[in-house]
Write a structure and sequence with these properties.
TIM Barrel; alpha/beta; 8-stranded mixed β-barrel; 3 domains; 366 residues
């Protein structure tokens, strides 16, 4: 064999060895991939268990509850939880019914207020020094058309709606044809931009104030705050008063305090503390008082329990938003409030689309 042939032979041998090594490497990688898939599946199963036990959630803010899975494995997981038999029974029962995790927590921690926010659960002790709610929960029911009923003929109860430019141009003539017109109507006067900070009047405020007054209902206004300090809060109060023009109102002016959810850009109020939010609300109320108006705070559970220091607001009226479901129609709030916004899906002649529905317990706070 000549030198050239030997070189070719040696090269062929080398390539053959490389091919064998590549085959071995591929086999090793294949086995690793199988092991990885098994481990990934195991981790996914463990993660699912942790999800069920911790209540971690992904949500849109309106309804940020962690939904429990309806798989058969849940009963086994719940049986393994430590705790007394009653707790395990509640957990198991709620899981079998497909109840959300936060609903389950509410049923167990009856001596605390439980709320979810940004993936966390907060367990807040109920302050016995604050006025409790005044209604009798056993007398609350939900009608077939989604309206809250209160079975107490001695109670001073009234119903109302709140409206804004989002309801479009209301046909007040058709509105007045409703067999059951609202006893009171809150009209949005305006808002402050959550990023720009600009004060903006609601485009329908004048027409809605006139229409609401002519309908015979009691009338009030509300303003959506994004004040970052007391000076801005007072400015918002004066702006809201200016939108009244020559229109008179019967109800306390409402300051709408809500967390901006699912924002594209961070709201200017993002870094405010509960103390700062509270000072702003008190400044708004003080400015209103100086101009002859009372104030009521509109908000949900996050508003009153996380954003504000409710202990400083005992003497300020509260308008609580908590929407009902067929199997859950008792307001979840331990303290006194006078208005409850129980639905955002009401229907009335003259208003295109849905409208917010409220019930007022006139025996409550202002």
């Amino acid at each position: 064999m000549n030198k050239k042939a030997k070189k070719i032979y040696t090269l062929i041998q080398g390539l053959a060895i490389i091919d064998v090594l590549l085959l071995i490497l591929c086999a090793i990688l294949a086995f690793k991939a199988i092991d990885y898939q098994k481990e990934n599946a195991r981790l996914a199963q463990e993660n699912e268990k942790l999800h069920i036990l911790s209540g971690s959630s992904q949500g849109d803010g309106a309804e940020q509850e962690a939904e429990m899975s309806e798989t058969g494995s849940e009963a086994m997981i719940i049986e393994e939880l430590p705790g007394d038999a009653d707790t395990r029974t509640v957990l198991k029962s709620y899981a079998e019914q497909g109840k959300s995790f936060i609903s389950t927590l509410k049923a167990i921690f009856t001596d605390q207020f439980v709320i979810a926010d940004e993936g966390k659960f907060y367990f807040m002790d109920i302050d016995p020094a604050l006025r409790p709610y005044s209604y009798d929960s056993s007398k609350i029911s939900l009608s077939d058309n989604g309206v809250i009923q209160y079975a107490d003929e001695t109670a001073d109860i009234s119903y109302g709606i709140d409206i804004s430019q989002h309801n479009g141009e209301i046909d007040w003539e058709a509105f007045n044809e409703n067999e059951e017109k609202p006893d009171f109507i809150y009209v949005r006067s305006g808002l402050r931009g959550y990023q720009s900070g600009k004060l903006v009047a609601d485009t329908q405020v004048s027409a809605n104030l006139i229409g609401a007054r002519e309908s015979g209902a009691e009338v009030g206004i509300y303003f959506v705050t994004q004040a970052v300090n007391e000076e801005e809060a007072r400015e918002e109060a004066r702006f809201a008063i200016e939108t009244l023009s020559d229109n008179t109102i019967d109800l306390p002016v409402a300051i709408d305090v809500e967390k901006v959810e699912n924002y594209e850009n961070e709201p200017r109020t993002k870094s405010l503390t509960a103390e700062e939010y509270t000072r702003n609300v008190l400044a708004f109320a003080d400015e209103m008082k100086q101009n002859g108006y009372d104030t009521i705070i509109y908000g949900n559970g996050k508003t009153f329990m996380l954003m504000l220091d409710i202990t400083q607001l005992e003497d300020t009226g509260k308008w609580f938003a908590d929407y009902v479901a067929e199997d859950d129609y008792i307001p979840y709030f331990p303290y006194d409030f006078s208005i409850w916004q129980f639905s955002s899906r009401g229907r009335m002649k003259g208003i295109t689309g849905d409208v917010d529905l409220n019930i007022r317990f006139n025996s409550g706070s202002p």
